[in-house]
Design brief:
Blueprint: E1 6-10, H1 21-29, E2 32-37, E3 46-47, H2 53-62, H3 64-72, E4 87-92, H4 99-118, E5 123-127, H5 137-146, E6 151-154, H6 159-167, E7 178-182, E8 196-200, H7 206-216, E9 218-224, E10 232-234, E11 248-256
Parallel strand pairs: 1-5, 1-6, 2-4, 2-5, 7-8
Antiparallel strand pairs: 3-4, 8-11, 9-10, 9-11
Helix pairs in contact: 4-5
Length: about 260
């Protein structure tokens, strides 16, 4: 029996119109849609047939990537075949920093995914933004690759590119450097790199980050929930709230105000 292929599919940052045709084609051709779920009630990988309708709706609503797909099906020019009816594989992706616990969960998710591939089914793991940038998809992708299955990564529009476009600003010019920083970790030293800094998922550290920006006189703009419901743009440091959502992205320029 021919083994299935694993696709890591980037669905873009939020706006369903930014979903690429290549992503659509892969999703349509795969028998199984793998959905990352951070809901604490999901402790092990489960197929759609193993979940109640209430749980399926809960997991799908909680997954931003799946919400983008649902929105895309409402756009006439983007007919995504059988997204709702397609077999689903719900994979637990809790927001933990315990490396051993995460490794155990990711190994379990990879084994469940590999079983579907071994049965000859293609699997599309949908992920917000691009699968190569701080993506939960990579945890499964690298394990599946090591197991010898064929794997493909399909790029999506990164959140920081969409945010810069929404704010109507460029990211870098000429010899300027661009630094992508995961703000939820201890990466404060990175703020002093030259060029433009992009702080992803900065919501939990907003007061401290704002203090550093004010002390150094950096130019900053922020977008919250880019392309999603509740999107907000902030043009100055004073406008940025101390409490912001998980999907908050800051663009910091090295030039002074």
């Amino acid at each position: 029996m021919k083994r299935g292929k694993f696709y890591g599919v980037g669905v873009g940052p939020g706006d369903p119109q930014l979903l690429t045709y290549k992503a659509i084609k892969a999703i349509e051709e795969c028998e199984i849609l793998a959905i990352p779920v951070s809901d604490q009630s999901l402790s092990m990988p489960l197929l759609k047939s193993q979940c109640s309708e209430e749980l399926r709706e809960r997991y799908q609503k909680q997954c931003a990537a799946y919400q983008i797909l649902e929105a895309a099906t409402e756009i006439a020019e983007i007919p995504l075949k059988m997204v709702d009816a397609k077999e689903k594989l719900y994979l637990p992706m809790p927001m933990l920093k315990d490396k051993e616990k995460l490794k155990e969960i990711h190994d379990q998710c990879a084994r469940k995914t590999a079983a579907q591939l071994q049965a000859g089914k293609n699997v599309a793991f949908i992920t917000l933004g691009d699968p190569g940038i701080y993506s939960t998809c990579l945890y499964i992708h690298k394990r599946i690759t090591r197991l010898g299955f064929e794997t493909v990564l399909i790029p999506g529009v990164p959140s920081f590119c969409a945010a810069a476009a929404k704010l109507n600003v460029g990211l870098v010019e000429n010899r300027q450097e661009l630094h992508i920083i995961p703000a939820s970790y201890e990466t404060e030293d990175s703020l002093f790199y030259p060029g433009t800094k992009v702080l992803m998922k900065a919501g939990t550290k907003m007061p401290y980050i704002k203090k550093l920006i004010a002390e150094n006189g950096w130019k900053v703009r922020m977008i919250e929930n880019c392309g999603m419901q509740g999107e907000m743009c902030y043009d100055t440091l004073e406008d940025i709230p101390d409490e912001a959502s998980y999907y908050s992205l800051l663009l910091i320029k090295e030039e002074k105000e």
